[in-house]
Design a protein that fits this description.
There is one protein chain. By secondary structure, the protein is α+β, with helices and mostly antiparallel strands. About 30% of the residues lie in helices and about 30% in strands. The protein has three helices and seven strands, in the order αβββββββαα. It has a five-stranded antiparallel beta sheet. A two-stranded antiparallel sheet has the order 4-5. β4 and β5 (about 95-105) form a beta hairpin. The protein starts with about 25 loop residues before the first helix and ends with a helix.
Length: about 170
């Protein structure tokens, strides 16, 4: 297992649409292991493969709170198959947009379909923080960032800030 570097806004690859996994092999399992290690090290509760530069439809999530037993789940080719009309608001952050948090409104509950690491097709209901996290990570697979759910003004401000920061670091 190894910790992979996390891509940071304004990295254009974060806008790429990830490709489906055809079969679960050693390479996919290694990717998932690395993603969990990277996610826990960051620390975060969710990570999409594109965030470590891999354009594949793979997500790792663990919403266990500090002090609770870990509840890692890997979602291969996840998709939302149903969403509630009821909405909820969570303060979201993103490992690719460090130290920036903003309230985002999303469906309170979703039903998802995905493959597990054994290649079995599974369906699951998600609510609360887990539902928010699943939607946030599936957005990543489609080239969407949580800031895309904000007003244009807020989004532009964040992009400008991170673009300036990246320019400063490049000039370093």
């Amino acid at each position: 297992m190894s910790i992979r570097p996390i891509l940071i806004l304004p990295e254009p690859k974060l806008r790429a649409i990830s490709k489906p996994i055809e079969k679960i092999d050693g390479e996919v399992r290694k990717l998932v292991e690395d993603m969990f290690e990277t996610m826990y090290d960051a620390p975060g509760i969710g990570l999409a493969a594109i965030q470590v530069g891999v354009e594949r439809r793979v997500v790792t999530i663990d919403t266990a709170r500090e002090g609770e037993d870990k509840k890692p789940i890997a979602l291969i080719n996840p998709e939302i198959v149903a969403a509630s009309d009821e909405l909820s608001v969570y303060s979201e952050g993103c490992l690719s947009i460090p130290e920036y948090y903003e309230e985002v409104e999303r469906p309170a509950r979703v039903a998802i379909r995905f493959m597990d690491l054994e290649g079995k097709l599974r369906e699951m209901e998600a609510d609360g923080l887990f539902a928010t996290c699943v939607q946030h990570e599936i957005d990543h697979l489609n080239g969407v960032l949580f800031i895309d759910h904000l007003s244009k003004l807020k989004r532009d401000r964040v992009i400008k800030k991170f673009t300036k920061q990246a320019k400063r670091e490049a000039e370093g």
